[in-house]
Amino acid sequence: MTHPNILVTDSDGILAIEISRRDKKNAITSDMYRAMSEALSHAREQSHVRVVLIRGQDDLFTAGNDLGDFLHRKAGDPSAAIPFLHLLSAFEKPLVAAVAGNAVGIGTTLLLHCDLVYAADNASFQLPFVNLALCPEAGSSLLLPRLAGHQRAAELLLLGETFDATTAREAGIVNRVVAADQLMDTALAAARKLAAKPAQSLAVTKSLMKRPPERSAIEAMDEEVIFFADLVAAPAAKEIFSAFLEKRIPNPEKINGVKP
Ligand code: COA
Fold it and tell me: Per the CATH hierarchy, to which homologous superfamily does domain 6-195 belong?
């Protein structure tokens, strides 16, 4: 699981995936997608990993897919980005992203699959697919209109111009904009909070939120009730209820079984 341009660290329940290919503005090659897929698979399988953090540096996220790779791609060639995006989209544990500097193409669209996205005030986003004679990828043709509304998504996807962190926040792509030197601390603090919460509740909550929106509120309630009934009777919830009633702090080992 090592690649010189994908730096993976695993500590305190947080698996951090850092894109680091600075001479090429962190552009992502096929091998880099494969390394990120391996890191995500590892994070999915390891119960001690509670949260994944995707980051670049505090002045750069990624200039998107390596255009040299695109240049040599023939119609029908498999793309290593696809398995990565599938893993990301179906990832059960919380995904936090920290974005600074350029976030182009998949650098923006991968954020639509994350749960908490923090951006530095120097971040610059772009969805240049039409400009590159391509079309949206990573499910962004569905997810962005859903998130931002049709007109706003159309402006970003059809014009393909760069937009700043405030615009990204207004479009719903970003949770919060912070000073560049605060970015990694802010994202890590959120990741640490998530890592300390009951893992099963996080996973169930995320899966309920990611159900297709076509279902009715009644269907949503019916599905919620099934999971709720299991969770309310599980040891983690019991420990939290007991702690509240006994005016004590819940024992984290009773909540997640093992220490994060
Ligand atoms: N693929 C391959 N190489 C890339 C790249 C990409 N997506 N983005 C940048 N690079 C390379 C440049 O070719 C250059 O390499 P060189 O030094 O060997 O010539 C190096 O990274 C620095 O890029 P440069 O354009 O000089 O940096 P900049 O700060 O002036 O501009 C960007 C940064 C991101 C605005 C600009 O590089 C850019 O538009 N890149 C293409 C983004 C893109 O279209 N991505 C695909 C989306 S689907």
Answer: 2-enoyl-CoA Hydratase; Chain A, domain 1 (3.90.226.10)
